[in-house]
Specification:
CATH architecture: Alpha-Beta Barrel
Helix content: 40-55%
Strand content: 15-25%
Number of strands: 11
Radius of gyration: 17 Å
Order of helices and strands: EHEEHEHEEHEHEHEHHEHHEH
Oligomer: single chain
Strand order of the largest sheet: 5-2-1-11-10-9-8-7-6
């Protein structure tokens, strides 16, 4: 059994107009042990001006390392989502994110198949996904970085669909980053899905879904950007933690919520459950 820890995805400050370093410091202040930064390719106006939390892959990776060390937290992974089925969009971005992770101290890079091109077939998409993933695995393996495949878009909305993507490339670098909220909204049983992948799990997005969002969207969408505070929604976190106890490696439950106040409530709910594990 590995250790279970609680982290915070930096999307929690997305509506607060704060920069990356501020978000890391605040996460530490709230009591989080880990943070999960989001990286982007190239330059982006709002983050360059200090009004958004994402970090450019053109920046020195030590920017992330130094911010985490200064705040006294660790990095659970990098959020580097994009369309795996579109190598011209996601190929170089994902490989650069993996190299960035190796330098900044993030053991995992999380991604998904993303929104498909309008003109390709399902079979063609999986060939393209395999190409992108294999190229990424070649970069990840010698650096000891893990790629966390997330349930998020059209093909990964079911356990069989996510496993199909996972099985495209045979590599020790490829694992699963289960998103509890996305699994639930896609109409799946998140507990059964977690049981199915727990031996391959490398990271977990701890996303809760409000009753209102569940009533409006469950079975109609494949995922959502952020959820409500953990403990305020439909997910049974005691049950999630119980399943995670059987994971053979250390796992960070990276909270995905939309506000600072939700992040504060989330850790107050999750920390006692993890302490009992």
């Amino acid at each position: 059994m590995g250790k279970i820890s609680v982290g915070l995805n930096l999307e929690y400050v997305r509506h607060h107009d704060k920069p990356f370093e501020w978000g890391v410091d605040k996460a530490a202040e709230l009591g989080y042990e880990y943070v999960e930064p989001m990286v982007h390719f190239g330059r982006e106006l709002m983050s360059e001006a200090g009004y958004f939390h994402t970090v450019s892959l053109f920046d020195d990776p030590y920017r992330i390392r130094r911010a985490a060390e200064k705040a006294g937290v660790k990095v659970s992974g990098l959020q580097a989502h994009g369309p795996l089925g579109r190598p011209e969009v996601h190929g170089e971005y994902l490989k650069l994110a993996i190299r960035h992770a190796a330098e900044c101290g993030a053991p995992v890079v999380n991604t998904d198949e993303g929104i498909k091109a309008k003109w390709t077939t399902e079979e063609e998409d999986h060939v393209l996904i395999k190409y992108t993933l294999q190229e990424a695995a070649f970069v990840a393996e010698p650096r000891g970085i893990l790629i966390g495949l997330e349930c998020h878009a059209q093909y990964s909305r079911t356990p069989d669909g996510l496993d199909r993507i996972y099985n495209l490339v045979k590599s020790p670098a490829i694992g699963i980053n289960l998103d509890t909220g996305n699994a639930y909204l896609a109409g799946q049983d998140p507990y059964a899905w977690l049981e199915r992948v727990v031996d391959r799990l490398v990271h977990l997005h701890a996303k809760d879904i409000s009753v209102q969002q569940s009533d409006a969207e469950r079975g109609k969408v494949t995922g959502t950007a952020v959820g409500c505070a953990c403990g305020d929604g439909v997910i049974d976190w005691s049950r999630i933690v119980s399943i995670l106890r059987r994971c053979p490696r250390d796992i960070v439950m990276s909270v995905e919520c939309g506000t600072i106040e939700q992040a504060e409530r989330s850790i107050k709910h999750l920390a006692p459950l993890v302490a009992q594990a």
